[in-house]
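User:
Can I borrow your eye for a moment on a structure tokenisation matter? Would you put together a sequence-and-structure record for a protein of your own picking? Please set it down just below, with no commentary around it:
AI:
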Amino acid sequence: MNAYQITGLIGIVLALLVVFLVQKKTRLTRSHLVYLCLCAAAGVFVGGHILFFIVGLPDFIKNDVPNIHSGAQLLDSLYYAASGMVFYGGLLCALLFMWIYIKIRRLPGRLYLNNMVIAFPIFHFMGRIGCAFTGCCYG
């Protein structure tokens, strides 16, 4: 494991710890919070990769597309082009996935999102520390 992965895991653990500590005071349903955390995690993963691919698409078209001569090379190039993550894509998609869950379950959205919103800066803070250690972006 590299420093980015370690700090990311620490950020996830700290964010979940804070969410569940706040949950004790607000008395929200723990199972819904668990599902919201899973929705947020899926949203961060999907949205972060999609936005990374979109941001890198001009470079992908300019540099990689002329050198692709087979299906295997195409898959390798696409895998590499979507291998990173962008925070804003992850945040927006996480909020979208949580909003969809709240609407499907007819939950009081403001109460649950107020509890969940605490987790994002904690996770982002730890992720940025990992970026600084790894040197992958601006840290």
Summary: The longest helix spans residues 30-64. Helices lie at 3-26, 30-64, 71-81, 87-105, 109-116, 119-134. The mean pLDDT is 87. DSSP finds six helices and no strands in the chain.
